[in-house]
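To fix ideas, we now present one chain and its tokenised fold:
***
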Amino acid sequence: MTRYEVVDVRYITKVIFLCLTSYLFGNTYGCNWLGILFALYFLVIGCLNSSRRRDFSRRPRYRKLPAYLAIVPLALYWMITPGVENGVNPTMVFLPGIYLLFLTALQERSRGNGGYDAFVNFNSTVVLLASMYQAPRGSFGFFIAAMLLLLFCNSRRGTSWYKYILFLVLSAALGAASYGGWQYWKSHRYGGGSWARENQFKNQVMGFDPVNALGSFNSNFNSKFNNQVVLRIWDDKPPRYMVGARYVTYAGGAWKLPKTPVRNLTPAYYQVDYAVMEVMDSVTRNRSKRVWVQSVLDNFGFAFAPSNAVGFSVKDVDSLQYFSGGMVSGMNKNGNRSDWNYFVCTEQPCEIPAELSLPDSTDLQLFSIYEGLLDSVIEAMKLREEELPKKDLKSGLVILDKIQNYFNRNFTYSLQVPELDKRNIKTREDPVHVFWRTRRGYCEYFATLSALTLRRLGYPTRYVSGFYNPEVTPGSPYGLFRRKNAHSWVEVYMDNRWVRFDPTPVVVNMGEASPSWLANFWEGTQARFAKWMHYLKDGEWRSSLDSWQAVLEHASDSPWTYVALLLLAGGFAGRRLVVNRRRRSRNISPNSRLAKELAKKLSLAEYQLSRVGLERTPGETVGHFLARIRKEPLEGKSASARNVLEEYEKVRWTL
């Protein structure tokens, strides 16, 4: 085994790598002085270790205590480091990096005498990678140089020079291909290629824009992504309908959102890092259940929730816009939000306040160009009062039944509507006219014609888009909505309340392919990983820590706590005294008086036995010698000598 440092070009390269890594780390996080100090330290250690007089045994021995002590202040500072929106606070990368750099210094200082070269390489490599997080412009070249130095200093001695050149050429080719691909993607990601448009479509919830054109849901039903997960609702009994948007104005084949919110929701209190914004004041604290919702795709700032939600909570958003009927938007004020919570009442009565749920003039808005068509619809469906049974005139629900029955008997649910697909090129006919004439379409068209017809009859009505019929696996803690679950329906104000009306005929598609077992398994794995990352990143674990802190604060105020600590300390101290006394009474060092007397007796006894021909052979223990002579007939001093051996065997293992 080599006792001295092998000082060659590889060792010099290693010292340069450690110095460069230290400087890059300090430069990235604005602590140049710290990086320079570590670089000087590695330079000095390298010079000392290069001395032929400094072999491995003379180096300082590696001590674990400094490594353990350094964890405490860094861990405490890391715990109180705040998070940032849509990213990671650089301090949360800097603190582990500086700790690993400290461990690298300890290992290199004692390498060969408790320190290991493998730990030096591993820790320094992680520090180098940490220095690339949000690194200043121009640092990438130094990073590549440091990686090449690391590979060279750890390469096998005797490697041919052409292999290094081949490695550099291969690395340059791979780097050039990666950089070229990145530049090409940046220049084509917003258009110019089918794959770019497909990637944009894959990562957005289609059909929930501020202006929702009829036919926008078609891409959710007729694409290869129709089984793609959109929402996860972490409730074992998720709602059947999840409202995304309520549109009020229809014109030219498109619905528009209301312009003015009924109320701006501001934080009422906080749950960990989430600001709770209540629709009903003082409800979400005691009489509600919180449900976490995760949006896998871009949700355009809508907070999808059931119609009976009484509050919402979002992280890092200072307010939300609440529109009449329960639609909430504004989550993208500080970037695209991918998760939120809604609250539903667990006790009844718990209804949305009347001033927030009453209809307004926009719920009856209807342009005159549709009146002729709608009169024809009303006449065909026989919805005039004189055509309704007198016993049902007081209830508007009979009108909804007649609309539903008419659609079921006379219309066909179809995702393929050729007349609607080509209307912009040839006829320019409004989609509701085409739908009424062709008697075929899907949810958007059924809901639109129903909403306009009910408005013509004088009922305040809203066109609602969202998701319907969640997928729930027995035993799973969450339900999910896929693209194919996108849906539109109607909410109509009848009998002094809002009634959900879904006019689309029920369709059972037996030929639709279900996700494979592997796809479901992968989805479950992703969901659970997302949940644990949510708890870790967004601070759910701190609620448990806060409860323990409250317990400790209460205990610190009680005198009985200090009495118990004193008794415990006294018990440990007493036990230590007893153990030490017993050890002192049994401890016989080679230089103690009792040990010397026992050795003298043993020597004299062996002399007496040798006079009668019984000698202990070289290498034979006293125990084996005693076992050999135990049955010998001895008398006088020889018998006394054997008794001394018996006493020695008893005493040597008990003292």
